[in-house]
Amino acid sequence: MKKNIAIIMGGYSSEYHISIKSGNVVHKYLNKETYNAYRIVITKEKWFYLDEDDQEHSVDKSDFSITIDTEKIHFDCVFNAIHGTPGEDGLMQAYFELLGIPQTSCNHYEAALTFNKRDLLSTLKPYGVPCATSYYLNKGQSVDEDAIVKQVGLPCFVKANRAGSSYGVSKVHKKEDLANAIDDAFKEDTQIIIESFLDGTEVSVGVITYQNKVTVLPATEIISENDFFDFEAKYMGKSQEITPARISEKQKSKVRHLAEFIYKTLGLKGYTRSEFIFIGDVPHLLEVNTTPGLTEESLLPQQAKIAGISLEALFDSAIVEALR
Predict the structure, then answer these.
(1) pLDDT averaged over the chain?
(2) Which among 99, 118, 137, 209 would be 20 to 30 A from 218, CA to CA?
(3) What is the CATH number of domain 113-130+199-323?
(4) 276, β-bridge pairs
């Protein structure tokens, strides 16, 4: 008997349209002989099922069900394709945990932890995970530019603490540009993190649970045409993404082991994609994404393809592991 799968997409953040694209790709490639797939769009105003004719049907939030032609449909599993809040920060995960509905991403606490860059790095540093030097700032606090420069140096990165797709991220070369960068980051979040610039090769490493085994995918090397891997570089072709990365065997081994260590240490499940920059042969962690992009062009599907995993197999595995 076919399983009913809700593919949740959209969300409340600036990543809404990217999430819609990811969700539609999952819907396209999910095996129709095995699953009844339903596109569920989550917005602040409403939650609704989008049928094949793009007609909207409301979702009953009391039990996460939909009604079509008087038939009430419940879901066996939720495929999470929401980037940013509320799909990547633990809110949707907690909701489904309360309802007892399996879902494909990590659990609510781990989602909240990894979405918060400051908390993630603070949690991993005692384990010896290398990271950039950082400075924390909350909205409403006074800004001491001299203290920031003394702590992290120049150039540095100003980042919204809880955002993705490089929204609210700026590379700052001069002290007098800090104020504008901080204002820009505060448009995305009330917390920011300012980090020292790491000058080295940037790689992205997918780690997934596939066929009941933690699997590290081939690393992707990131070469941005812009000053860093910003939104334009990620989504508008202003970068080269080379999979597998052109790094030494020693570097490959180190980053694979570190990515797997982080995945297992944090108790993650489902898909993740971690970003690193090499200083010499040492990979330094930037962040961990627990609902990475899932379009044909996205990094994780690129890496899965090199590993011999098709999109259909990749998406099927997420549901199989969630149901397991």
Answers:
(1) 93
(2) 118
(3) 3.30.470.20
(4) 203, 285
User: Hey, where are the domains in the chain?
Assistant: 3-104, 113-130+199-323, 134-196
- Tell me the residue length of the chain: 324
Tell the residue number behind the tokens 């000058």, with chain if given: 199
CB atoms within 10 A of CB 208: 27
- Give whole-number Cα distances, 6 to 73, 74, 76, 206, in Å: 10, 9, 8, 24
Q: Do domains 3-104 and 134-196 have the same CATH topology?
A: no
Taking a C-beta distance cutoff of 8 angstroms, is the pair 90, 116 a contact? no
> Looking at domain 134-196, does it have CATH number 3.30.1490.20?
yes
The overall longest dimension of the chain from CA atoms, in Å, is: 65
What mean pLDDT is predicted for residues 70-87? 96
Distance CA 45, CA 62 (A): 16
Class of domain 3-104: alpha beta
User: How far apart, in whole angstroms, are the C-alpha atoms of residue 79 and residue 256?
Assistant: 26
* Residue 214 near residue 264, CB atoms below 8 Å: yes
Q: How far is it, in rounded angstroms, from Cα 216 to Cα 255?
A: 10
Residue 166 has pLDDT above 90, yes or no: no
Contact 76, 284 (CB under 8 A): no
Cα distance between residue 54 and residue 51, in whole Å: 5
